[in-house]
Structures are given as structure tokens and as C-alpha cells.
Amino acid sequence: MLNILLLRLDAPLMSFGAPIVDNYGAIQAFPGRSQWTGLLANALGYHHQDSNQLYRLQSRIRFAVRCDRPGIPIMDYQTVDLGQDFMRDDNAWATRDKPDSHSRKGAPSTATGTHIRYRHYLADSIYTAAICLEPISEDPDIETIAAAVGRPARPLFIGRKCCLPASPLFLSVIEAPSLIEGLNAFPRIPIKRSGMKPDRFLSAWWDDGSNFQISSVRTIPITDERDWVNQIHTGRRFLNHGQINPPEAPHDNR
After folding, report:
1. DSSP of 42-109, one letter per residue?
2. Which long-range contacts (CB under 8 A, 24 or more apart) does 222-226 make?
3. DSSP secondary structure letter of residue 246
């Protein structure tokens, strides 16, 4: 049996990061391994420079995710004119509430002029996730992470800093034979709230050798790990996609 942490992602906006191409910040259908690493590491109080801890946590994470409400894809068009006088001050940029004189260094073309960004989001979505760690005996364990998610070291966000949760992320810690079985057994939000048909709960999960029967399974290649030193997406692996039918919760007060 696996010791599984259940989380619910419920937010006005959320973003499941994918490799950025030029100035397009596209997103994936489900949160990936690097996103879970960042969220849990933030709850634990890790810092960006703790690359060894981040790599190790990322390598241990196994997950399954269920879409309880798909929401609406939107794109945010962003511009900033870095050539304006008040933007040329070395103290015009701040990182973690401290003036940052380094982020404007580099080629002249990147230090001035108008920068344009396209950032994609999901609006009004709800996802439920099952997460476990391998090996289970190593620190931090699931109980430590569950406690950290309940009382995080810093505010948590779902993908980008503007994507603040609408409700607590922590649901429960359970035992189940596999991640997908644990996810399938945990109640979904009521149909009236989700707008989903009972057999349309698309899920993605780590293939852990489970014999649980799911129809129309597809194997999808993804790039969802992160090089925590250079801050870029990396790697290529596969996730299963398929539809499950979890029981409906009798009520949902969230």
C-alpha cells in the first residue's frame, strides 16, 4: 500500500507550466513534476539556491491528477517598456521584497525597449491530485509534507504568483494500492458544481504498474522536469491519460 497525499487545486486562475518558446508561456493539461516540486518545496521553506534538495525532491515525486472542473483557457497579453526613465533605476526591480540590481544586467537589447509576453492560464478550474514519494523512508516524508502544506513556510500559488488558491490545498493522507486507485476512490465535487458528465473525469498518472482497469488509456510524452540551477524545463518522459469515474461527494462546502 502507498502512503498518499491528496491535494485539491481550486483557484480563480492557475497555470501548469510548460517549456517557454520565445515570449509564449504556454501551459500543459495537468501540473507536472517540476510544478509539484516547486509547490511542495515552497511549503517546506526551500529556496531557489537549494538546488540539491530540489533535485532530490523532484526525483522522488510520483503523482496522479484528476480534472474535476476544466475551466476556461485564457491568455494574458503583457507589455512593459523598460526604456522609461523610472524603469532604468537599478532598484526598479525587486525579488522577494528586496531591491534587485542584477536582473537588468545582460545584452542592451534585453535591458531596454518594450517587452511583450503572452501568458496562458486556466480560469475557474478544479483539480484533485494524489502524490507519493519514493523511497518512502527518506526525509521529507509524506507526513512532513502534509504538515507543511497545511501550514506552509510561505504563501503558496498554483503555477504563477498571481494564481492564489481559493481554498486550502490539503485534503487528506490515505493508503491505496496505487496512485490512480487512490485518486479514483476519492470523491469528486458535485456534478452541479463541476458541469462534468460522470464518466468524463480526465486524469493523468504515473505508471506505477497498477492493474486498475481504465478505458481509452493513452501514453503522452511530456517535458515536466526542471533544471533547478539554470531554471529551465528539461527531460522527456511519459504519462498515462485516461478517464476515471470517482464517486460524487454528497456535499462540498469549499
Report:
1. HHHT--TT-HHHHHHHHHHEEEEEEEEE--EEEEEEEEEETTSGGGSSGGG-EETTEE-SSTT-S-HH
2. 222/28, 222/32, 223/18, 223/19, 224/18, 224/28, 224/32, 224/33, 224/34, 224/35, 225/32, 225/33, 225/34, 225/58, 226/34, 226/37, 226/38, 226/54, 226/58
3. P
Q: Record the cell numbers describing residue 247, joined without a space.
A: 464517486
- Single-letter residue type at 238: F
What is the model's pLDDT at position 20?
A: 65
Cell of 238: 511519459
- H or E stretch including 237? strand 237-244
> What is the model's pLDDT at position 206?
81
Q: 126 is written with which cell numbers?
A: 478544479
For residue 81, give the amino acid letter.
D
Cell representation of residue 41: 518545496
DSSP letter for each residue of 141-181: -HHHHHHHHHS-SS---SSSTT---SS-SEEEEEEESSHHH
In a domain, 119, yes or no: no
Total domain count, the chain: 1
Walking along the chain (254 residues) 10 residues at a time, the average pLDDT comes out as 96 84 69 94 94 96 93 86 64 53 51 75 94 94 97 94 94 95 90 67 81 84 88 85 86 55
**Residue 89 maps to a domain:** no
Please indicate, yes or no, if residue 111 is contained in any of the structural domains.
Answer: no
The answer as to whether 171 is a domain residue is yes
Nearest alpha-carbon partner for 239 in 211, 213, 203: 203
Residue 229 is classified by DSSP as T
The CATH number covering residue 232 comes to: 3.30.70.2660
pTM of the model: 0.83
